[in-house]
Design brief:
By secondary structure, this protein is mainly beta. It contains five helices and 22 strands. Strands 1, 19, 20, 21 and 22 form a five-stranded antiparallel beta sheet that branches. Strand 12 and strand 13 form a beta hairpin. About 40% of the residues are buried.
Length: about 375
């Protein structure tokens, strides 16, 4: 999701601060110049290199798809194409035939739905956050967040379509309005939706960012809205900086992935992915050490390594022959640009997920992405 917790002064305050700061800079630079002229020049020692494995970080970077996305949805298949939606104007998209080369697709909305100003007062424009898409009988449910920057005045809304292919004559996004909302009177933030359908055909949504953490509610598998508007909202995980939850079922467990840290700061981003699991979808979710994620537990799963910075907003795609993990990261080789990455995913003997780095799965000499990630 977008960074929400940096307070920015108003423009008038900003320029007053800028004027004061500029004067201080001029005086400081003049004093520094005098000090430099007074002493012999000496070369400064280079800063110590970060203790990062070059092979490991290079392997992570090779998962890059070189397309600019932030908060990517779970990758989903429609016909012969894979689709991913992401934060931006109208909810933009990319599509691919091979998970390697991606082309820009159409946005979901040409303009903001009419209900937005009433449900999220103060929201302007059609820049929506952190979409998620799931296939349902008869079509696709796409959820997205509408929010005010730095506040929990937010809503998660739903749009539906029978297809994701704009060339299909049936293609049409139907706005279904808000699913859940929050405001200053709530202790949660209604953004960052993630959907899961359980083996008993029940539909659930996790969401939340900062405030009191990650929440879970049940939805109607038919309408995509809340099954019971007064239904219980479960608390799954908490940390001082937590968001971007993702729930995935595997081998009798539900795995809860969350982001800790701060996004949206380019190479200074501190995002990292943690994971826990539970036999029950409502929790409790425990990490590999048995620590409850409501009490700060969470096993490290994916974090900054070299130029692979601040990974977040994971999703999992199970294709015929491979399970894939997608995320965004800030590319330290391209000025911290947020970029899509796709990796093979596997499960340990103790049933914990781990990313398969390209160097582990490709014979020596085969280093192109088309060889590494060909579904």
């Amino acid at each position: 999701m977008l960074a929400q917790y940096t307070l920015v002064p108003g423009f008038h305050g900003f320029y007053r601060m800028k004027s004061i700061f500029s004067s201080w800079v001029v005086r400081s630079c003049f004093s520094l110049l005098l000090a430099v002229l007074a002493f012999p020049l000496r070369a400064l020692p280079a800063p110590p290199a970060a203790p990062v494995s070059a092979d490991f970080s290079s392997a992570l970077i090779s998962g890059s798809r070189l397309v600019h996305v932030h908060d990517p949805s779970t990758i989903i298949c429609c016909g012969n194409d894979y689709w991913v939606f992401y934060t931006g104007a109208g909810i933009p998209s990319y599509h691919s035939r091979d998970l390697v080369s991606w082309q820009a697709g159409q946005p979901v909305f040409p303009h903001a739905p009419a209900w937005v100003p009433d449900v999220v007062p103060g929201k302007r424009g059609d820049f929506f956050w952190a979409p998620e898409v799931i296939q349902r009988p008869g079509g696709y449910f796409l959820y997205y967040a509408v929010s005010l920057f730095g506040k929990n005045t937010s809503a998660i809304a739903l749009a539906t379509n029978v297809t994701l292919d704009p060339n299909d004559p049936r293609y049409h996004w139907t706005d279904c309005g808000p699913v859940v909302r929050s405001d200053a009177g709530d202790d949660f933030n209604a953004i960052d939706p993630s959907l899961v359908c359980t083996p008993d055909k029940r539909l659930w949504m996790t969401f939340g960012s900062f405030w009191s953490g990650i929440k879970l509610m049940e939805l109607s598998p038919v309408t995509g809205k809340r099954k019971d508007p007064q239904g219980h909202v479960y608390s799954l995980a908490f940390n001082d900086s937590i968001e971007a939850s993702y729930l995935y079922p595997h081998n009798g467990y539900y795995y809860l992935f969350v982001n800790w840290g701060l996004c949206c700061r380019g190479t200074n981003s501190t995002y990292e992915v943690r994971v826990g699991r539970s036999r029950q979808i409502t929790g409790p979710y425990l990490d590999a050490g048995g620590n409850d994620m409501m009490e700060g537990g969470g096993t490290p799963f994916l974090e900054t390594q070299g130029p692979f910075i601040g990974p977040g907003q994971v999703g999992i795609l199970a294709s015929t022959n491979q399970i894939w993990l997608s995320c965004h990261f800030y590319d330290g080789l391209h000025h911290g640009r947020s970029t899509l990455a796709v990796f093979p995913l596997e499960w340990s003997s103790l049933d914990w997920p781990r990313v398969v780095l390209p160097a582990q799965q490709v014979p020596a000499g085969q280093v192109s992405n088309s060889n590494l990630l060909n579904p």
